[in-house]
Design a protein that fits this description.
By secondary structure, this protein is of the alpha+beta class. Helices cover 19% and strands 31% of the residues. The strands form 2 sheets. It has a 6-stranded mixed beta sheet with strand order 3-4-2-1-12-11. Helix 1 packs parallel to helix 2. The relative contact order is 0.19. The mean pLDDT is 93. GO terms for molecular function: endonuclease activity.
């Protein structure tokens, strides 16, 4: 069995709710999570070559984590369609990753990371429910092809209702740890974690601190997971 803490955090391009640009605040929030794996959204600016908003040369010193190696949107980007996954260096040494293109009206993608016995898929779903349904259907199919692997699907689902719009995830347990948006006065459960049956969620929550409320328009979510052996 393996136990780890997984988190998801939409950085809002490190601009806080109203600015200014302050990536050191986001890095401090990430460090405070104490997570082994962190799925990040909006790590790059949106325009042009989509340069990194979260400076890669600051990450390890500030958090003890490193970005997984995967294809970037451009040579100046940290993420793939704004997403990346941070993890402990010892886990990064074992990790393999694959960027996934997703259907929908807007350009969207996911990052799929493989560790021995565990697959983590980091997502930032579209703004239209029809796009989200199509994106989740593709991701659920990918998860189903992982065989005996435990699978976690996590990120900003952009979905505020309970199970509505999440029909493709019937084989996964979908957890919304709490209200995470907007950070200054959280009301909606946009950020979620979905796990296959071989994963037990021991605890979960929203990381709600004064700094987290300033650093992004989303609060991070986290879950302590027990991954059972599947062999």
């Amino acid at each position: 069995m393996m136990r780890l803490r997984l988190a998801s955090y939409n950085l809002h391009k490190c601009r806080g709710t109203f600015g200014p640009y302050a990536p050191e605040q986001n890095l401090a929030v990430i460090a405070g999570l104490g997570a082994d794996i962190v799925a990040l959204q909006e790590v790059d600016f949106r325009m042009g070559l989509r340069p990194e908003a979260l400076p890669r040369d600051m990450i390890e010193a500030a958090t003890g984590l490193v970005p997984v190696d995967h294809r970037r949107t451009s040579g100046q980007s940290l993420g793939w369609h704004g997403q990346t996954i941070l993890l402990r260096p010892d886990l990064a040494a074992m990790a393999r990753s694959l960027p996934l293109a997703l259907p929908g009206v807007e350009p969207r993608g996911a990052v799929m990371m493989h560790l021995p016995g565990l697959t983590v898929i980091a997502v930032h779903l579209g703004l239209m429910r029809s796009s989200r349904r199509a994106q989740l259907a593709r991701l659920a199919a990918k998860a189903g092809r992982r065989g005996g692997d435990a699978v976690v699907l996590t990120g900003d689902f952009n979905e505020w209702r309970g199970e509505h719009g999440l029909e493709a995830l019937t084989d996964l347990d979908v957890i919304a740890p709490g209200r995470s948006w907007p950070a200054l006065s959280p009301r909606l459960r946009y950020d979620r974690i979905a796990v296959t049956p071989s994963i037990k969620v021991l605890d979960c929550g929203v990381f709600d601190t004064p700094l987290a409320r300033k650093a992004s328009d989303h609060l991070p979510i986290w879950a302590d997971l027990l991954i059972r052996d599947t062999e």
